[in-house]
Amino acid sequence: xxxxxxxxxxxxxxxVLPFSLSKCxxxxxxxxxxxxxxxxxxxxxxxxxxxxxxxxGRNSGQxxxxxxxxxxxxxVNLFGLTIFHTGINSFLENLGKLRNGWQVSEPGYxxxxxxxTDIPWSLLEPFENxxxxxxxxxxxxxxxxxxxxxxxxxxxxxNVAYPNKTGVSKFNRNYPRPLASNFMELDLSVGCxxxxxxxxxxxxxxxxxLLDECFTFYFNQQRKDCxxxxxxxxxxxxxxxxxxxxxxxxxxKP
Length: 254
Fold this sequence. Notes:
Number of strands: 13
Mean pLDDT: 89
Structural class: mainly beta
Shape: globular
CATH superfamily of the largest domain: Mannose-Binding Protein A, subunit A
Number of helices: 2
CATH class of the largest domain: Alpha Beta
Largest sheet: 7 strands, mixed
Keywords: Signal
Protein name: Apple domain-containing protein
C-alpha cells in the first residue's frame, strides 16, 4: 500500500482530558448514554458550523464536533429549535437514495459508516442524487445540498483527545478504502477544503498533520496545489476534475 510518513519538526503540546464525568459540563444537555450536547447560536453554513463547534470546544478546554452517530437523540423539543446542522455526510461516495453508508465527522469514527437504522430518516429520505449533508428539520433528518441551510450547529462533547503532534503520523492513499474517483460526481457539495501550496506531497502532509481538524489531503505535483480536507473526510469538488496534473489522495490513519 502506498503510504506517506510525516515526521514533525516542531513539538506542540496540546492537552485535552478525555471526558469521563458522570454528568455533562455546565451549559450542556445530557441526552443519556453519556452523550452531552450544546447548541451554539451562531447561524452558519455547513463548514463554518464545523469550525464553530471546534472553536467553542477549544475556548473551553474541550473537544467538540457536530453531532452524527447520536442524531437519533435529537427532537424538536430538545433546544426549542427546529433546524440544525449535523456532521452526517456522503462526501466520500455518491450514495444517492441509499440510507446506508453515510459518514460522520466524529473523532474516532471518521472512517466508519452508518447503517440505515442509525439515522432517523424522514419519510422518503434521502430523495436526491449526489453527495450531500444531513440536516435536522422539524423532527427528522433530511439529505440536502451543502449550501442549502444557514442555521445553528448542534455540537457534541468528544471523549477522544486531539491527535499527538509528536512522533510519526501515517497517511495512506487507499485508506479507509480505495475510491473509484478522487472527485465528487455532482456539484451539490464541495466539502470543507483549505487551499494552499506545497513543494511536495511530504510538505503538504506536514501542513495537514499540524492541524487537528485535517483528516485528508490531496496534492497535485504539477500545480504544487495542496488541498486540506477539514473536519470531514471528503473527495475533491467536481470542479477540479479537469485541472492539469494528477491529484493524489492521502488519508491520516488513526
